[in-house]
Specification:
Blueprint (H helix, E strand, L loop, with lengths): L2 H9 L21 H13 L1 H9 L4 E3 L3 E4 L7 E4 L2 E2 L1 H14 L3 E6 L6 E5 H17 L7
Helix pairs in contact: 2-3, 4-5
Length: 143
């Protein structure tokens, strides 16, 4: 077998992975296919209304004045005037809602037996340690 044939046989993948049926027990969306299609249509027909509604699921430190502002650069400006904290939305609010002991992150190494699960409490603690380390070396907001 030539080197090229060996490479081709190594890189060939013949398995087929079908998408999960949105109505199945494995779907994480929690909505039916019909509901998904309705949301998709709304996102096309009323983009700003759709995203204004979706933004309600976040905790805003300062509400936005405008959902989207067209600019010369793609993709424009989103949620103009609004301020939020991604870390707060990913961690703190879940801890405050009583989900601190729920798994927030599963880390898997290249070795199958190396797995680490972090709860929201544990992950928040690690993020705070990282933030304090950055402050200690002089980093500030905007750096």
């Amino acid at each position: 077998m030539s080197k090229e044939e060996k490479m081709e046989s190594v890189l060939t993948e013949n398995r087929i992975f079908n998408p999960v049926d949105l109505n199945s027990e494995y779907s994480k969306t929690g909505i039916s296919l019909e509901e998904y299609k309705k949301l998709w249509k709304q996102s096309i027909d009323d983009m700003e209304g759709f995203w204004a509604e979706q933004a309600k699921s976040l905790d805003w430190f300062k509400p936005f004045d405008k959902v989207w502002e067209k600019t010369d650069l793609f993709p424009g400006n989103w949620f103009v005037g609004g301020k939020l904290n991604v870390s707060y939305n990913c961690l703190d609010r879940h801890v405050k809602a009583g989900k601190g002991d729920h798994v927030a992150l599963i880390w898997e190494a290249d070795e199958p037996d190396q797995v680490r699960k972090y709860t929201f409490n544990e992950l928040l603690k690690e993020v705070c340690k990282c933030a304090n380390g950055m402050k200690k070396i002089g980093l500030k907001k905007g750096d």
